[in-house]
Amino acid sequence: MQLCVGQVARAEQFWPRDTEINRIWDSVESGGHILIAAPRRVGKTSVMYKIYDEPRDGYVVAFVDVESADNEHEFWHKLFNTLTSETFISQTHRYTAKLVTSLRELAGKVKKVSTSGIEFGDGETLDYAAAFEKFVTELQIDKKLIIMVDEFAQAVENIIKYQSKEKAESFLRTARSLRQNPKILEKVTFIYAGSIGLEGVVARIGATKSINDLNSIKIPPLVFEDAFVFTRALCKEIEEDDEAITYLLEKIEWLIPFYIQLIIQETNKEMLTRESIDRAITTALAHKNHFEHWKSKLKEAFEPTGYNFAKEILNVMSDKHTIKSSAITNLISKHNLDHDIAKEIVHTLVYDGYINNNDDPKTYRFNSPILRMWWYNNVAN
Ligand SMILES: Nc1ncnc2c1ncn2[C@@H]1O[C@H](COP(=O)(O)OP(=O)(O)OP(=O)(O)O)[C@@H](O)[C@H]1O
Ligand SMILES: [Mg+2]
C-alpha cells in the first residue's frame, strides 16, 4: 500500500472496498440509478474511480465532476464536454470500436453548448434534456453507459445560490424525468455522489420527490478489523505493533481511511508508539486545509442564523464532548429559528458526517474526535 493523503486513492493506493463496490454493481445490473451516500472524505470518489478503472463486462463508464458548475448551463456543458471529449472516447476503445465511431460522429454533431441549449451541426438547437435524449438515442452502443456525476449536490446548491430555488427544482425534475425516460434508461445508468448530502439539499427546497427514484448506497467507515489490516499495510516502512495500532485506531475512532492515512503520514516514519501517535495527531491538526472545509461548507449551506445555530451546537459539543437534544431545543429558541428548519439543520449535521446520536437518541456527539479537537481549537476558541 502506498500512502495517499487527500487525493483520490487509485491503483496501488486503493484499499479494497469490495462490499460497497459489489453492492453498486449489483444495483447497476438490476437497472437502478444510484446515489452514493457518505460524508466528506469517506472515500466516495475513490470508489467511483475504482468502478471507472475496472468496469464489469458490458459497461462503459464516464466520470464527470460538476462541483464548479454554478448554473444549469455549466452543468450540461461539463456533461457534454465529458461525453464528447477525446479522453473519454479513446478510452472506450478498449471495450468497443463501434462505440468510438458513434461517439466521434456525435461529438462532431454537437456544435455548441450554449446558455439556451445545445446547438447541433445541422442547425437544430434543442433544450438540454431533449439534446441529451437525442444524443443517447443516436448513440450506437452495445454496452451500457454508466455516467458518474461527482459533486452533484454541490451543483444543485450552486444553482440555488447563483440562479434560484425554482431553477434548481426544475433542474432536478428534468434530471429525474431523463432517468425515467425509457429510451435513456435502456442505455444509461447514472451514479451520483457528493460530499454534501443530496438529501439535505433537496429537502431544504422541498424537492425530495425529485430524487426518490435513486437507490442510495452507503459507504460506511471501515470496521475495526479491516482498519487494523489497512493500517498495518500502510506501515510498510514503519515499525509498529498490535498495541500501537490499536491505540491509533482508538484515538481516530471514526475509522475512515483518510484519518488513518493522515496520521500515519504525520508520524514521519517514526516507530509507532503512543507518544509518536499523539505527536502525529497534533501535527495533523495544524493542517488547516484538511479541516477548514468542515466549517466553510456549513457557511455555504445555511442562512446566517442557521449557520450560527449549527456552529454553536458544534462549539458546545467540541468543549463538552456531547450535547443533549434539550440543549439543542434551547439553542433553537435562542437563535429564533423555525423548529422544522432547525431540525433539518441537525439532520444535515448527522447526514454530512459531523455528528451522530447512535448511542442514545437524545445525545449527540462528533463522529470524529480528531475533527472535534480541530473544531475546539480553531472555531470554538
Ligand atoms: N479505498 C481507499 N483506500 C485508501 N485510501 C482511501 C480510500 N478511500 C479514501 N481514502 C483516503 O481518503 C481520502 C479521501 O478520499 P476520496 O477523495 O475518495 O473521498 P471523498 O469521500 O470523495 O471525499 P470528498 O467528500 O472530500 O469528495 C484519500 O485521499 C485517501 O487518503
Ligand atoms: Mg469526492
Task: Describe the protein.
This protein is α/β, with parallel strands linked by helices and 381 residues long. It folds into three domains: 11-218, P-loop containing nucleotide triphosphate hydrolases (Rossmann fold); 224-286; 291-380, Winged helix-like DNA-binding domain superfamily/Winged helix DNA-binding domain (Arc Repressor Mutant, subunit A). The chain has 19 helices and eleven strands. The chain has helices spanning 18-29, 44-53, 72-83, 86-91, 97-109, 128-138, 152-162, 165-180, 182-185, 198-204, 224-234, 242-252, 257-266, 274-285, 288-301, 304-320, 325-334, 339-351, 369-380, and strands at 34-37, 59-65, 110-113, 118-120, 125-126, 144-150, 188-193, 215-218, 322-324, 355-360, 363-366. The strands form three sheets. The protein has a five-stranded parallel β-sheet, sandwiched between helices. The longest helix has 17 residues, at 304-320. The radius of gyration is 23 Å and the shape is globular. The chain starts with 17 loop residues before the first helix and ends with a helix. The mean pLDDT is 94. Residues 4-9, 13-15, 17, 38, 40-46, 195, 257-258, 261 line the site of adenosine-5'-triphosphate.
CATH C-level class of the largest domain: Alpha Beta
* Strand adjacency order, main sheet: 2-6-7-1-8
Q: Which small molecules are bound?
A: adenosine-5'-triphosphate, magnesium ion
State the separation between the terminal residues, measured CA to CA.
38 Å
Helix/strand order, N-terminal first: HEHEHHHEEEHEHHHEHEHHHHHHEHHEEH
